[in-house]
Design brief:
The radius of gyration is 19 Å and the shape is globular. The N terminus is likely disordered. It starts with 6 loop residues before the first helix and ends with a strand. The chain contains two helices and eleven strands. By secondary structure, it is mainly β.
Length: 292
């Protein structure tokens, strides 16, 4: 599972060593939404194969991040959490590029006691939308933002939802299937930072997901982070490795019903001008739920 709404934020803040670190307590996760009505049964002959398909759903994505780093011999912890509320509309028919897909943000709010990283104006997210194509493998590609200026300012915390959906085999998801895929992403919100992931997936079982029959998909990943950039005019270099584990749920009719993931990263941030290296560890938890 790669629901990392704040991946760019984690990277673009790398060169910032807070002078007055704080340690607020993130708010508790949202309560589970009311039960969703079961989707229509899959077509005859395809009951054992799941593919992402047309739907119109509203989601909330909650991510909590804990950062520990050392700067000039001092430990600097930081905790923050954000919730993003947005709607996803997938329409058919699909063409060779996939299904036409629109993701529209309603709002992004910080957890009580925390603030947005880097002082980003979260209000600019209101009604920002991304139009693109959802491929059979679950990649959201060829996005166009409704407001390029707002999208750029929010890129550290929004990105473009390219990894929001779970990755599926090209021929669809079947019970018991296992597969491995690799993904390389270049994140330019902070400069040129490359994230390479190797993902091992397993379609474990049919389960009840808030009243809907859904396939449970477990994913375990190893990833590397490497690159460079500038923050407030100060060049930096970053390198690190991490692990991630997650679970996604996909209904028999192709609706994505959310899930949860956790990741842990160890990295070093180098500030060449100051000839300084800052060790950092980062742990995050991301939860995606469907809203009524």
């Amino acid at each position: 599972m790669r629901h990392l709404l704040l991946v760019a934020a984690s990277i673009s803040a790398l060169s910032c060593a807070p002078k007055h670190p704080s340690n607020p307590t993130p708010a508790n996760p949202t309560s589970p939404p009311p039960l969703l009505p079961p989707g229509p049964p899959p077509a005859r002959g395809n009951a054992d194969v799941i593919r992402l398909g047309p739907s119109a759903l509203r989601y909330v994505m909650h991510q909590v991040i804990h950062i520990d780093q050392e700067f000039q011999g001092m430990r600097q912890p930081l905790d923050f959490g954000l919730r993003a509320f947005f709607a996803v509309t997938i329409t058919g028919p699909a063409d060779t590029s996939g299904y036409p897909t629109t993701i529209t943000i309603d709002s992004i709010v910080a957890d009580s006691g925390t603030t947005a990283p880097m002082g980003i104006n979260l209000g600019a997210a209101k009604a920002l939308s991304f139009v693109g194509r959802l491929t059979p493998k679950g990649a959201f590609r060829n996005q166009t933002a409704s407001d390029s200026t707002a999208a750029q300012s929010l890129a550290p915390v929004v990105g473009s939802f390219k990894n929001f959906f779970p990755r599926l085999p090209p021929n669809g998801l079947t019970l018991g299937a296992t597969w491995t895929d690799s993904v390389t992403e270049n994140d330019r919100a902070a400069g040129s930072v490359t994230v390479k992931s190797i993902n091992r997936s397993h379609a474990v079982a049919w389960e009840d997901r808030n009243g809907t029959r859904a396939m449970r998909l477990d994913v375990n990943s190893d990833f590397t982070v490497k690159g460079s950039g500038q923050q407030t005019g100060q060049p930096f270099e970053v390198a690190g490795t991490g692990v991630r584990s997650g679970t996604d749920f996909v209904a028999a009719d192709g609706r994505y019903l959310g899930g949860e993931s956790r990741d842990s990263t160890a990295m070093t941030i180098t500030l060449p001008i100051q000839a300084m290296t800052i060790p950092r560890t980062q742990v995050s938890k991301t939860t995606v739920t469907v809203l009524p």
